[in-house]
Write a structure and sequence with these properties.
Elements lengths: L2 H54 L3 H30 L20 H30 L14 H26 L2 H6 L20 H8 L1 H10 L3 H19 L11 H9 L9 H6 L9 H5 L9 H4 L4
C-alpha cells in the first residue's frame, strides 16, 4: 500500500472515531437535557401544587372528601349552568345550529328547569355527599393514602386514568343495562329518560337508587382500586364531569367530543348503553345506531360547520 493511501485510510479512521464520539456525546446531552426538562416540569407542577395546599391545607380527610366535593360539584354547576343559560335564553343564536335535536328546549321551559335543579341538588347533597364520605373513611381503614404533597409522575397519572376509564366503562355499561330491564326501568331508570332530549344538568337527574348504584360507584371505584393520589383524582373527576355534561348537553360543538351516541340512547332507549362504545360494540348494542346518520356524525368535529351541515338528513 502506498504511503498516501495509508494517510487517507488513517485520516478516515480518525474522522470516523470522532464522529462516533460526537454522536455519543450528543445523545448523552439530549438525554440529560430531557431529564432536566422533565425535572423542571415536575418541579414546577409540584411547587404549584404545594403552593395551593399551603392555602387550602393538606389534611387528607378535608381534601379527599370536602374539597373534592366542592370542586367537582362547583365545576358541574358552572359548566352545566352555562349550557342551561343557552337553553333558557336561546342565546347565542349562532350556537343553535349545533343542537343534536333541533327544536327541542328552544327555549327550555322554566318549570322543567326548576324540577331539574331540585332533583340534581337532592342527589348531590342527600345521596352523593354521604356516600363519598362513608366510602373514603371505610377505604382509609384498609389502604394507605399517598402523601398529598408528593405529586405522582406522569406515568402513574396515565396508568391510573386508564384503569379508572376501564372501570367506569365496565361498571356503567352492565349496571346501566340492568336498569333497562323491565323491573328496574319502570321503577327507577324511567325518571332519567324523562329527558328524551337531554340537557347538560340532566346528567345527574335520576332516581336516588340509580345515583347510589350507577352514578357514584363506577366513578369512585377506579381511584379506590389504584389508591390514586389526590392530584390524579382531581384530573379524573374533571374528566368525568366534563364527559358526563357533554354527553347530556344536547350540543355537538366544534373541537369537543361528540354527544351523538348518548343522545341517541335517550331517544331510543335500547342502544348505546356505554360511555365510550367498547361494550356496545362487543355486545352489538350499537348495531342500529351504526346504521343511522347520527353514527356518521359521531366524530370530533374540527370544523365550524355543524355535524348536521357536514352530514345532512335525519
Amino acid at each position: 500500500m502506498h504511503s498516501w493511501e495509508k494517510v487517507i485510510e488513517s485520516t478516515f479512521i480518525t474522522l470516523r472515531l470522532q464522529q462516533n464520539s460526537f454522536e455519543n456525546v450528543s445523545e448523552s446531552c439530549v438525554t440529560q437535557i430531557g431529564d432536566v426538562q422533565g425535572d423542571i416540569s415536575q418541579t414546577f407542577i409540584e411547587r404549584s401544587w404545594n403552593a395551593l395546599l399551603d392555602v387550602i391545607g393538606d389534611d387528607p380527610d378535608m381534601l379527599y372528601v370536602w374539597y373534592l366535593t366542592i370542586y367537582t360539584y362547583g365545576l358541574y354547576w358552572i359548566i352545566g349552568g352555562l349550557f342551561a343559560l343557552m337553553d333558557l335564553t336561546n342565546r347565542p343564536k349562532f350556537l343553535r345550529k349545533y343542537k343534536t335535536q333541533p327544536g327541542t328546549h328552544e327555549p327550555l321551559r322554566w318549570d322543567h328547569f326548576k324540577k331539574l335543579v331540585r332533583t340534581v341538588a337532592f342527589n348531590q347533597v342527600v345521596v352523593a355527599v354521604p356516600t363519598s364520605y362513608i366510602s373514603y373513611h371505610v377505604s382509609k381503614r384498609f389502604i394507605t393514602m399517598p402523601d398529598v404533597r408528593v405529586v405522582p409522575s406522569l406515568g402513574l397519572v396515565l396508568r391510573d386514568m386508564a384503569v379508572c376509564i376501564f372501570v367506569w366503562e365496565t361498571w356503567f355499561y352492565y349496571v346501566h343495562r340492568m336498569f333497562h330491564s323491565r323491573h328496574f326501568y319502570q321503577r327507577f331508570h324511567k325518571q332519567h329518560h324523562e329527558w328524551r332530549a337531554p340537557v347538560a344538568l340532566s346528567a345527574m337527574y335520576a332516581h336516588p337508587l340509580e345515583s347510589l348504584l350507577n352514578t357514584l360507584p363506577p366513578v369512585l371505584l377506579g381511584p379506590g382500586i389504584m389508591r390514586s393520589h389526590l392530584f390524579t383524582t382531581v384530573i379524573w373527576l374533571t374528566f368525568v364531569t366534563w364527559d358526563s355534561l357533554g354527553d347530556h348537553s344536547g350540543y355537538h360543538l366544534p373541537f369537543l367530543g361528540s354527544s351523538e351516541a348518548h343522545d341517541y340512547h335517550h331517544q331510543n332507549f335500547n342502544q348505546c348503553y356505554g360511555n365510550f362504545g367498547l361494550y356496545d360494540r362487543l355486545h352489538g348494542t350499537d348495531n342500529e345506531f351504526r346504521k343511522k346518520k347520527q353514527y356518521q356524525r359521531h366524530r370530533r368535529n374540527f370544523s365550524f360547520k355543524s355535524a348536521r351541515e357536514l352530514v345532512p338528513g335525519k
